[in-house]
Structures are given as C-alpha cells and as structure tokens.
Amino acid sequence: MKITRRSLLRGLGGLSALHLAGWPIAGNAGPKGARAQARLVAVFLRGGLDGLAAVPAVGDPHWEHARAGLARTVETIGAPRPLDGLFALDPRLRSLHAMYTRDELAIVHACALPYRERSHFDAQDLLESGGTRPFAQRDGFLARGLASQPAIALAPVLPLSLRGSVRADSWSPSSLEAPSDTLLDAASGMYEGDDLFGATVAGARAARDVAGAHEGRRNADTSFPALAKAAAAFLSRPLGPRVAVLDHGGFDSHSLQDQAYGGLDRSLRALDAGLGALRVGLGERWQHTIVVVTTEFGRTVAMNGSGGTDHGTASTAFVLGGAVAGGRVLSDWPGLAAHALHEGRDLRPTTDLRAVWKGILGEHMGVSPEALGRTVFPGSTDIAPLTGLVRA
Amino acid sequence: MQTPDATQPAVQAVLATQRFGLGARPGENRAIAGDPRGWLRAQTVPEMELPTPLASLPATGEDLWAFFGALFDIGRKTRRARRRDEPIPDGDLAFERHFAPRYQAALHARLSVAAETDTPFRERLIHFWANHFTISSARPVTIALPPSFERDVVRPHVMGRFEDMLGASTRHPGMLLYLDNERNLGPNSHRAENPERRGLIPIDPATGLNENLAREILELHTLGVDGGYSQQDVTRFAMTLSGWRIRVRPFFRSRHDGADLVRFDAKSHEPGAQTVLGTVYAQENGAQAEAVLHDLVRHPATARFIAQKLVRHFVADVPPEPAVARIAQVFRESEGDLAEVSRALVELPEAWQRPSKLRRPEELVIAGARAVPGSLAAGPDLVQTLTEMGQRPQWAPSPAGFPDVASEWRGGDALWKRLAWAQAAAADSADAFGGPNDVLTRAADVLGPYLGDRTRRALGAAPPTTALAALLSSPEFQRR
Predict the structure, then answer these.
(1) For A67-71, A114-118, B59-63, B365-369, which range has the lowest pLDDT when averaged over its residues?
(2) How far is CA B262 from the centre of its chain?
(3) Could you tell me what percent of chain B has a pLDDT over 70?
(4) Domain housing A98
C-alpha cells in the first residue's frame, strides 16, 4: 500500500493534523469544564437584513400603515407566525420558529451598530471590526476577544472578524485535486522565512484534513446550508475549532422583497435551512453552542417604489443554540409611529449590537468585562452587556 | 539573498512586466530590456482597435434583451407554479443557469486578451478601472452586463479623461440597473404625480427616490468614504440623477450599445435646483447631474482617493504617502487625464523595487497563462477555480469591487487553492517542458534576477510537472 499523507494522518488518528495547525492537544492550556465545551458560531448577514421582514411587528398599531404592501406579501409568502403579542416570525423561517418554541432562540429587535450612516462598505467593516469608525480598526473583534481560541472561517478568505487571530484559519470547498505531498514539500522549502506564506502551509494542510470529505468534488457546494453543515463538522471534532464564522449574503433587498422569487426569499430560506443544519450537525454539542446572527444595518420602515426597502438603521439579531435562554424577543421597542422613526424613516435602534456580543462573549466564552470594554470593542465601557441570553 | 540592482535595464525590464504589466511572457523581458520605461509609456495611448476576442461578444442591447427575456420567462414559470400549487422555481438560480454560457464566454475572452496582449500595462489599468467602477454579476439584474460595461465604459477611456469614464459609467445601462437609478424617481416629478405613468419595471411613485447610485458615486467612484459629504449631499445628488433611465424600446429590435440604450427621462426628474457640497445646481434635466459630476472630478478628495487606490494597486498595500501625493497632484493638475496619471505611475521611484504585492487570484492565473503560453485553454476550469479562491471575476460581492490588499485573501485555504491551481495548471501544460532544465530556464526568463535560491533549488530537483507547479507556486511568482 502506498503511504499517502492522508493515510498517514488517519493512522495517527488525525491528531497530528491538529497539532500542525497549532491547535491544542489534550492537556494543553485552554478553558476548563463547561467553558471548554462552549462553541460559538457567528453568522454575518450581508447586505442589510430587513429586520421588519424577518420579525414583523404585527402588533404595533402602525404596522399596517408602515408596510402597506403586507397584504401582497402574505398572499405570496404566507402569514407570519406569531411569537408574542407584538412580534411574529416570517413563515419561511421554519427551523427558527421550532427553536423558538423550544426556548432555543432569542431575538433581539431594534438593535444596530454604533453607526448611523448607510454604507454597506462601512457598516460591514464595523460589524466585523468592532470599531466605531469605519476602517479605523484593522483586525476583528472576534480575533481580539478570542485570540486563544482556535477558529475557522467557512470562507475562501479569512474574514475581517477573525483577522489578527493567530489561531484562525479559513476553509471553503475546492473542486481541484489536493496538492501532492511533493508539491507541499517543495512549497514548504520555498516559503521558508517568507513573511506571507512561511507559517501557512502547515495550517492549510491541517484544515484540509479535517474537512477532507468535502474535497475534490466537482461543483463544490458553497451555499449557506452546505457551509453550515461543514461548520458543524469542524466544530464537532473533539480537538477542533471552537469558533466558526460564516457569511450569508443577498439581503440587500432594494426591490421585489415581497415576491416569492425575489432575492430576499432565497436568502431567508437558505438562512433557515443552514441554521437548521447547524443544529442537526452539531448533535450533542448543540447544547453547548450559541449561534449569533447579525447584519450590518436594517432597512427603511416604508417600502420603496420597487417593492423593496432601502438602507436603514436598526434590524434584528438572532441568538440561538442549546445554550441560549430563548423563547423570547428582547426589545425596548421604539415603535413604528412616524415620530418614533430614526430620521423619519428607519427603525430606531434601542439596543447596541455590541451589547449583544458582549453578553455572549462574556457569559458564554468567558471574556472579561475589562477586555470587552477596552480591546474587543474599544471605548465601549459605557455599553452594558446584554446579560441573561445564556442559559444559567 | 542579494538584491538585484534596480538601475540595471535587465532588472527594470522584469519590474516593468511584473509590477506594471501582467507578468512576463517568454522572451518579453529580453525584448523590452532596451527601454523598459519607454515600453510602458508607449502603452499610455488609447486602444486603436478592440481585441478580437472581445469584438465578438454580444452588444449591450443583446445582453439587456437576454436579461428581460429571462425575466419574463422566470415570471411566467413562477406564475404557473403558483397556479398549480407547485414549488416556486428559484429565480436567481434560473438566472445563473441562463447566463452561465454567456459568462463563461465573456470571462474567457477577458482572460485570453490579458494572456496575449502586447500592452499589458494598459490592460492592467483596464482591469483596475473596471474594478473601480464595479458593476457585478452578483446582482441578477446585471448578471449579463459587466463585460459590455468594461468594453463600452472602461476601454474607450482608459487613456482618456476620468470625467468621460465617470460620465460613461454613470449613464451606462449596467450602472443604472446595478445601483438602481432605473428606480430613482424625483418625489415631485411628473411620473410621481401621475401614478399611471409607469415604465417596464413598475414604480410606485409614493416613495420613488433611490439614493444608491448617488451614494456609491460619492463613496466609491469619486470622493471616497472620507471625502467630506453628508447624507443631505447624497439625497440632493440623487435628485439630480433622477431621470437617467434605460431606454426600453430599441433593444427589442437589434444590436445597440451603451448610449442608445439610455435616455434622460424628464418626466422622472426632480424639478428645481439642488445643493450638493455647498454648490447650487440650477441646471435643467440631465445637465444637472452632469454639472455635479464635472465638479466631483475636480474635487481634491477625488484626486486623493483615486491616487490612493492606484498607488495601492501598483506599489504597496499600504500606499506610501509621497507616492499618493504625487499621483494626486498629477490627477488634480491634469483634471483627471488618465494617460498623464498612468505615466506618472511609471515615474514613481517606489514602484521600481522588488515585487512585493501578492497577486490577486485573477492576476495569478493571468500571470500563469502568460508565463506558460497555451496553459489557459488547457488548464482547469477557471470560473470555478477563481470562485473558490474568493474572487470570481466580475462577480464582486459589493459595489466596492474586489479588495486590493493581501490581508483579504492570504489565509491557509487561499494558499491551498493557489497550490491546487498551480498543480492542475502544470499537469495540463508540462508536456511543453521536455528537458531537465526547461522549467528552470523558463523561471529565469520570467523572473530574471528575482528568481531566488530556494526556488531555484526546488525547481532543479523536480521532474517537469512538479517543477512547473513549484514555479507557479513560488513566492516570487505569487507576487508582482
């Protein structure tokens, strides 16, 4: 039998792969007890999720007026499912609804970044950097908060949120044959001392071995559900990463968001399928997992002339997982009356998105309040963490 | 390793093809060694004739027609499915399938022009400006339009005036659709007040104004995000832009290009004067936005923003300030003469140093195709490969285009895919390298004195296929 790299690693039980990646092997430093089990998944929704589409405020007296196109939406998509007196959930978010009824989903409504402009470019930077001024922060808040935790981004490139972490890597499906050992060895030789590639070869090798099953397929599937499934596989490895980061795009619904074939329709369905897949894929680990789903900004309260909504301010965040104290919508609801809107057009933010993250990073991942206020979210000491999202 | 002497013409030739060009073709460095700077300067003239592979691509009108045809088709299928209570077909996927062959053909044309051109500096700039004025196939509505946008807007003006390129971009059907100006209706316009007057795309006049194009022109095309404009400026500028729309009728008939497909629709335009960045624009109709664009080109923030991007692209991820200041000055003083700006880039001392920029995925693939002629056609499926490397060409995730800094794509997975590409490309092209030292000879030809000892050793020790894969993977080849 020809000894290949893979068979060799299989023989070693995969441990050497993780060792190569610099991940801790049993006995190494790392959080103990329940914290060691904790898994965190960050999902960034790109384009600005319309929080009022995902979680409509059907009980608000101004709802009907604010979303005059609602009747047509219900006709094409179905009626929202009631959560409490005020809020409902878009009928396409079926798995999320099931989690809500199991108390595994908490929704934070009317939350936003500390950013009041409406540029995707800037807002996505802040969403991942954790800064308050676009492009002022060159690394990511997850990297700063969880520098000692192995992390994986399900993306072709390392996202900003993890940039700066020495223990983060990225992975996404490849349809090409894996580089041969000969080439990898040649590369290791050529890259020795190289500032960009020097340390990367070993890490790349290791990540591939963990995700080996996905490799070399034609038309590698990069849909959100497929990546979510892969994320669950990474997080389920006993010594694998504890943090996963995923992107999901297509929420910039300037038009036709009330149509069953519009882009938002596709994105919401994929979101729900992916989050459902995470739960299934994580198995028992789901009990120790929290998934935080956030977006760069919300959208205008009123629909525009194209059946869509334009860039706005506050949106919703979803916090789900077996470790979540869910089954509720947390919101200091600002209301949809014209005078209550931000700049007369957007849902007014009443919760800072950083408070949500601070609550999760503190209670679930054990990041200290000091670090949260100063380094993870610089200059945010006056933003109190949103506590109680994590099951006691 | 010794640092090659960058005052030597042979060294400068390599820097010219690597740093300013798209990577050397075999013999190219030798051919231009007499006057590398002159070779670059000679490329700063307008293109006389469209390269053959691009000439046969569909006209913009055909692309639009194909789009609307697909739209109707999907609408019909959706209605039918709803009637029969069947699952609604996935519109975006249907679009992608519909346009996949067109996209493949257009991308192959783009890459083969880049692989074969004798004017790679100008071609680099064309790619740069196409990325600057991104319209992306990632939005279904513009899925078919980036190739014709590049041809209609970028190529004719790459050595012309920035103002003309900006104007052509703003009025191209691709940009009008990508950034929603088709739906930008003045709140007090005739159409807003007469709801029965609707275009092909339904517009509800109650909330017509759409700021997308105005915002991105300010943020991404001219002033830059720190350019000192306010939300009020965006809104007012959007009002001046209301009325620029695509023309529906002509492309139902035959081949048409850019200008024929756009009209100024006075009935959609917001009447009255607008104040943008402190200047009052009292012009009527289309002249109003033209006047704003004219002033934006001459705004100092625009010169700086463009200079930063150019220097970041050609010199370093963190653009050195003196170089930025120099290019900004030339941009300002020439009022955006892009040939002069391009020549000023050639004169930057900061650019004539060891290649340090990591090649973007598409740049890497192009450099490979130039170093190993024939490898483009023989190699792996490049759409798939580049998608997996995170930068599917003309499919940028946002109007900001693809980032131009290595930190965006240098993770372990990116490296893995670069190696996988190198291996696949080498496997398909190694036949051309028979002798034991052929690959090493090619490496020296393309990389010149920048070919390092480690790489030399790796290539010398390996059989041709592995050696070629190693050349394409080498740190020297990964940079420009």
Answers:
(1) A67-71
(2) 22
(3) 90
(4) 37-178+219-376
B288 in Cβ contact with B218 (< 8 Å): no
Alpha-carbon span B334 to B344, nearest angstrom: 11
pLDDT in tens, B189-203: 988 887 676 555 555
Say which of A120, A172, A305 has its CB closest to residue B206.
Answer: A305
Query: Do the Cβ atoms of B210 and A186 come within 8 Å?
Result: no
User: Which residues on chain B are in Cβ contact (under 8 Å) with A306?
Assistant: 180, 183, 201-204, 210
φ, ψ of residue A187 to 5 degrees: the values are -65, -45
Judge whether A390 lies within some domain.
no
Which residue in chain A has the smallest CA separation from B460? Answer: A186
pLDDT, chain A, mean: 84
User: In this structure, are residues A56 and A298 in contact, taking their beta carbons and an 8 Å threshold?
Assistant: no
CA-CA distance, A136 to A115, in Å (whole number)? Answer: 13
Amino acid at B137: S
- Cα–Cα dist B192/B185, whole Å: 7
pLDDT of residue B255: 54
Residue A181 scores a pLDDT above 70: yes
Backbone angles phi, psi at A338, to 5 degrees: -50, -40
Q: What number of other Cβ atoms are within 10 A of residue A339's Cβ?
A: 6
Q: With respect to residue A352, please indicate whether it lies within any of the assigned structural domains.
A: yes
**Residue ranges of the domains in chain B?**
52-160, 177-297, 361-473
Q: How far is CA B339 from CA A155, B179, B225, B295, B332, in A?
A: 38, 28, 25, 20, 13
| CA distances in angstroms from A285 to A149, A247, A282, A371, listed in the order given | 17, 21, 5, 27
A264 to chain B, minimum CA–CA distance in Å? 10
Q: What does the pLDDT read at residue A24?
A: 37
- Residues of chain A neighbouring B387 (CB-CB closer than 8 A): 222
DSSP state string for B444-459: HHHHGGG--HHHHHHH
Supply the pTM of this predicted model: 0.79
- Of the candidates B92, B380, B466, which has its C-beta nearest A176's C-beta? B380
Amino acid at A217: R
Q: Considering CB atoms only, which of A170, A190, A303 is closest to B458?
A: A190
Most A CBs within 10 A among B180, B416, B476, hence the mutation to make, goes to: B416
B209-224 pLDDT per residue, tens: 888 899 999 999 999 9
DSSP secondary structure code for residue A23 in this structure: P
**Helices B231-241 and B286-297, axial angle in degrees (round to 10):** 130
CATH number of the domain encompassing residue A49 = 3.40.720
- Mean pLDDT score of chain B, rounded to an integer? 89
Q: Which range has the top average pLDDT, A195-199, A266-270, B295-299? A: B295-299
Q: A312 in a domain, yes or no? A: yes
Residue A318 has pLDDT above 60, yes or no: yes
Cβ neighbours for B187, distance < 8 A, ≥ 6 positions apart? B208, B209, B270
Size of interface A-B (CB pairs under 8 A): 209
The Cα-based distances of A263 to A179, A252, B387 in angstroms read: 37, 8, 20
- CA pair distance A145, A358, nearest whole angstrom: 10
Q: What's the structural domain count of chain A?
A: 1
Per-residue pLDDT tens for A89-132?
Answer: 999 999 999 999 999 999 999 999 999 888 777 799 899 999 98
Instruction: With beta carbons under 8 A apart, name residues in chain A contacting B470.
Output: 183, 186-187, 190
Put simply, the answer to whether B420 touches A306 (Cβ < 8 Å) is no
The better pLDDT of the pair B289, A308 is held by: B289
Query: B354: which DSSP letter?
Result: S
Question: Rounded CA gap, B23 and B21, in Å?
Answer: 6
Is the ipTM higher than 0.95? The answer is no
Q: How far is B207 from chain A (nearest CA, A)?
A: 5
